[in-house]
Write a structure and sequence with these properties.
Low-confidence stretches: none
Bound molecules: adenosine monophosphate, magnesium ion
CATH architecture of the largest domain: 3-Layer(aba) Sandwich
Helix content: 10-25%
Largest sheet: 6 strands, mixed
Number of domains: 4
Mean pLDDT: 94
Length: 425
């Protein structure tokens, strides 16, 4: 897709219908405006967890550096072993992990070797200790103890070769990457600076924790789910609290947020642009598109730029906030953080254990529980009531059941798409 010039241009396109915006199209439009951060900082390897690598990492060494044993046992010359009888060899030394045997071994000789011990020159194979007995320096090796030369031996460079590109820039650093970086002896890496995300909730009914509730008031929970989701993604969060639905207060909040953050996220009425003044205000401060997405929950969504900051206006309902975050904001933030090859949450097919009622016309993201079935696989059912205000459904769920736009009722036993919410399989 060629990059459109401005949000205003998009809103003039023939096929643009803000009142029925397909999920995929909204994602695509948002993507076309995302430019990743470029500022790099150098951090200690341990602090790189969850960050995005800003440089290619080339291995300065081979890992492992030497051929070594995969077992506790005896390092032997395969050619010495008799195919049809027990073999007796002379033990001439031992090789521990970190304390190698330095001499070569000759015909008829072997050494005691432990896992990770360097293979001595001359030996090509390791016999596991369970297949050998030792007495007074003589080692008897059972017939058929190894089937081929090279068995139980790890090769130098079998994990990584010297000079090999281990990771490309744009790689997210998980625990496995931390370990690999450490295995190369690298103590510091270049990562992209953290993305700064400011957020606030809007709504006169919202109260912060610590304030008693009067009739009709509720506690602001979106602020906490957003805090959690953003922190998990490795963002620097700026929690601006609740902002009253009043023009001058909102203008101040938007201006402050956009001036100091890369991304501004709001939840509540503002995002829908219901009140004319909100639209006018955002038009004055930047360029923002208001959409009704063809999805459930999470219909109203706004995206745009306010100054240099990206703006996501999420719906107010607590479940809608989480669904729109996972379906739109998550990917966008990962791209802005500099990660390569960002994809939406992957979907896979699972059998439905109870029927679902649905009306065609919108993509539904129902909260689902994946659990083991009787056949050693998994099946999925919904958490029950799917109201967009029922946050306990998110808490009970471990996946979204994604029902495409054109689909209607789904019977038990049919395959449905699910997106895992915890880690990824
Ligand atoms: P709105 O989009 O502002 O019309 O809000 C839709 C629903 O979500 C209303 O019932 C609000 O009370 C509720 N809501 C909005 N913001 C929050 C929030 N920050 N925490 C909890 N509920 C909220
Ligand atoms: Mg509201």
């Amino acid at each position: 897709m060629t990059s459109p010039k401005s949000l205003r241009e998009i809103s003039c396109a023939d096929d643009y219908d803000p009142n029925s915006m397909p999920v995929v199209k909204a994602r695509e439009l948002i993507r076309s405006f995302l430019t990743p951060v470029t500022v790099i900082e150098r951090v200690h390897v341990r602090s790189a967890l969850g960050r995005v690598l800003a440089e290619d990492l080339i291995s300065p060494i081979a890992v492992p550096g030497h051929d070594n044993s995969a077992m506790d046992g005896y390092a032997v010359r395969f050619a010495d072993l008799k195919a049809d009888a027990e073999t007796t060899l002379t033990r001439v030394g031992e090789s521990f992990a970190g304390k190698p045997w330095t001499g070569p071994i000759g015909p008829g000789e072997c050494i005691r070797i432990f896992t990770g011990g360097v293979m001595p020159e001359g030996a090509d194979t390791v016999v596991m200790q369970e297949r050998a007995t030792e007495h007074a320096g003589r080692v008897k090796i059972a017939q058929g103890a190894v089937s081929k030369a090279g068995q139980n031996r790890r090769f130098a460079g079998e994990d990584l070769k010297a000079g090999q590109a281990v990771f490309r820039k744009g790689q997210r650093i998980h625990p496995a990457e931390l370990g690999m970086i450490a295995s190369l002896g690298i103590g510091e890496v270049g990562v992209y600076r953290m993305l700064r995300v400011a957020f606030f909730s809007t709504g006169d009914e919202l109260k912060s924790i610590g304030t008693p509730l009067r009739a009709g008031e509720i506690y602001d929970s979106n602020r906490y789910t957003l805090h959690g989701m953003l922190t998990r993604l490795g963002c620097e969060v700026v929690d601006m609290g609740v902002v009253e639905d009043a023009p001058e207060k909102l203008e101040h909040a938007f201006a402050t947020a956009a001036a100091s953050a890369d991304v501004v996220i709001t939840s509540g009425g503002v995002s829908v642009g219901e009140a004319d003044y909100v639209k006018q205000l955002l038009d004055k401060l930047g360029e923002v598109l208001f959409w009704k997405i063809a999805m459930r929950p999470g219909r109203p969504l706004a995206y745009g730029k306010i100054g240099g900051a990206h703006f996501f206006g999420l719906p107010g309902n607590p479940v809608s906030v989480m669904v729109t975050f996972y379906e739109f904001v998550r990917d966008a933030l990962m791209i802005l953080q500099g990660q390569r090859d960002v994809t939406p949450l992957p979907t896979f097919k699972v059998r439905l254990s109870a029927p679902i009622r649905k009306v065609p016309g919108r993509t539904e993201f129902q909260r689902g529980i994946l659990s083991p079935d009787d056949n050693g696989g998994f099946s999925v059912r919904t958490t029950g009531d799917q109201g967009s205000g029922i946050l306990s459904s998110m808490s009970q769920a471990n996946c979204f059941i994604v029902l495409p736009t054109e689909v209607g009722n789904v019977a038990a036993g049919e395959l449905v798409d699910v997106q895992l919410l915890e880690g990824l399989i």
